[in-house]
Design a protein that fits this description.
single chain; 213 residues; Farnesyl Diphosphate Synthase; globular
Length: 213
């Protein structure tokens, strides 16, 4: 499937979906997010194929939003004097997007539309940005409780946003589901930590609590 045809051929174009900000966001913005996911993670890209087709573009927008932040901290802060300046710029751009209703960045335009379409509060991502800044200062966690506090930002915002995007079935509400989404987010984040022990060690990070070591 060609990237520039992936949504129009599946009937997901903004014209047919009636997204919230169709006068601001474009199909090209979502395709840009899709490219980020496909380039960054074969695992996520493959797994995402099992999501409902009308949700997929929004999941890709969420992934791209967080991928850019992660990469500014862990991979490259080209164009900025430091990784901290890079992630703070991304955070400021995020808040400005929500306050102004537009952005020059395609990922932020796409995610704003996704957030408005599924009633995802902007504040959900506040702990995420804090966790990214903490990654620049904290590389060990004395206790499991400390690690859980870190995951309040590194993991839980993903599950909360995904719950809004995927929705719940009657008679349940989003608020009832969020607690369970938090638990699943922690479980998946821990799985990532245990999988990536070698990689994290190379960049001087240990996510296994020191009390357990």
């Amino acid at each position: 499937m060609e990237l520039n045809q992936s949504y129009s051929t599946q009937g997901h174009s903004l014209e047919t979906r009636g997204d919230y900000l169709s006068n601001v966001v474009s199909d090209a913005d979502y395709i840009y997010c899709q490219k980020i996911m496909r380039a960054a993670s074969k695992n996520y890209s493959f797994a995402s194929r099992f999501f409902p087709s009308d949700k997929l573009r929004h999941i890709e927008a969420l992934y791209a939003l967080m991928r850019i932040g992660d990469d500014r901290v862990d991979v490259s802060h080209t164009g900025f004097s430091s990784a901290l300046e890079a992630i703070e710029d991304w955070e400021q751009s995020y808040w400005h997007t929500f306050s102004s209703g537009n952005s020059p960045h395609p990922v932020l335009r796409a995610y704003l539309n996704t957030a408005k379409t599924f009633d995802i509060p902007a504040e959900i991502m506040a702990p995420y940005f804090q966790a990214m800044k903490d990654d620049l200062l904290v590389n060990r966690f004395p206790t499991f409780s400390d690690l859980l506090s870190y995951m309040d930002g590194s993991a839980l915002p993903v599950g909360k946003a995904m719950t809004h995007i995927l929705g719940v079935r009657d008679p349940f509400t989003i608020q009832q589901a969020l607690h369970h989404a938090d638990s699943l987010s922690v479980a998946m984040q821990l799985s990532n930590f245990w999988r990536d022990i070698g990689y994290d060690w190379k960049i001087n990070r240990v996510y296994i609590p020191q009390e357990d070591l």
